[in-house]
Design brief:
single chain, 229 residues, alpha+beta, Gyrase A, domain 2, 12 helices, 14% strand
Length: 229
């Protein structure tokens, strides 16, 4: 898996702070851009987050090149609808080279791992046979497993990134999408550390785990209620 930040709003944190200040100031946005200090920007962002006033975060966006994830994970990723995606097409790209993801739980079982590799290779070989038989790639792809790697470009604004990370950085999420959003968080932290610091599981904001069972970072809401009683 590889994740690279290939584009983003110029000075995203300043853009967010400026948008927030415009709503309660007679000063124009260009003037605010010149006048706001870094300390003021940091203070404004902190206030916005603490008050749950997140609409200004929609004015900063980030574009990522994502490669080497499975179709399992890309299907989960595109469920975040407030984003833009352009994914490698299996209709127009003939996947003659076999690249696929192997879950660690399979790798630790040699017998199962061997059968897994065999099943994926057999499916891919049938795919190649169908291409050789002049079956269109868009039809031959039906036999390909979800383990096949895919590449895509994703653009998401800061508010939606915070929401997506609140769900996908939870340790109860599937391992591959957790790794993906850990890498996304790392890329954001390089250019917008204050925003990057807010990319974390929702339990940090809630103060408890709202899953049926906690991973151990925070107790569940029910556990807290029992302790209070």
């Amino acid at each position: 898996m590889e994740v690279a930040l290939i584009g983003y709003t110029s000075d995203p944190e300043l853009a967010i702070a400026t948008a927030a200040r415009v709503s309660s100031s007679s000063t124009t946005a260009p003037e605010l851009l010149r006048k706001l200090t870094r300390d003021q920007v940091d203070s404004l962002i902190k206030q916005l987050i603490s008050r749950g006033h997140l609409s200004p975060f929609e004015h900063a966006s980030f574009t990522f090149a994502i490669s080497g994830i499975s179709r399992v994970t890309s299907h989960q990723l595109v469920r975040h609808r407030l984003a833009s995606y352009t994914q490698q097409s299996q209709r127009y790209v003939s996947l003659k080279k076999l690249n696929y993801v192997i879950p660690a739980t399979i790798s630790v079982n040699p017998e199962i791992e061997s059968k897994y590799h065999e099943a994926v290779r057999n499916a891919h070989q049938l795919y190649l046979n169908m291409l050789d038989a002049d079956i269109p790639a868009e039809d031959a792809r039906y036999v390909l497993p979800q383990a096949m790697e895919t590449n895509l470009v994703m653009t998401m604004n800061a508010r939606e990134l915070m929401h997506a990370c609140s769900l996908r950085l939870c340790l109860k999420a599937q391992w591959e999408i957790v790794q993906l959003f850990q890498a996304i968080k790392g890329e954001v932290e390089r250019v917008a550390p204050r925003i990057g610091a807010e990319l974390k599981p929702k339990c940090y904001q809630l103060g408890y785990c709202d899953e049926a069972e906690s991973c151990g970072i925070f107790p569940t809401k029910e556990e807290i209620e029992v302790k209070v009683r």
